[in-house]
Fold this protein.
Amino acid sequence: MKNRKLSITITLLVFFSLSLAWASTPEKAEKITWTNYEKGMAMAENQGKKIFLYFHADWCTYCKKMELTTFKDKGVIDYINENYIAITVDSDKEQKIASLFGVRGLPTTWFLKSDSDKLSSMPGYIDSNRLLTILKFINTESYEKMSYQDFKENL
């Protein structure tokens, strides 16, 4: 009887220890942590992270496709959340911001330095593999040392 109680106690301790360890293990996000323009710009400057700026609209077919495919890719989600401040801008509702970035078609993606200096933009749909490569090219500042084509070949 005493051994049985001891066995149950040990089993419960192991179970609770494993539960605590599992609960405290940080999990990767299941979606991109988007923020609005004003807040995101301030966060980027404070955290020293580059900015991933995504312009879209509710009616945009390729925006929806990008949101359902590219932005659901685990590699893209993890890389953006770890290395960028992700800002989403509805170009219909925030026309002034879209105009500031010369957005003429959707979707349009901009990459900015943490101080909001413009690096580059890409119009149109971007698949997850291509976007991940571009994100790495921009984040590692490889654009200062080599062409995008050379970067892709060296991956």
User: Anything to note?
Assistant: The beta strands are 34-35, 50-56, 84-90, 108-112, 118-123. The radius of gyration is 22 Å. Residues 48 and 114 are 5 Å apart (CA to CA).
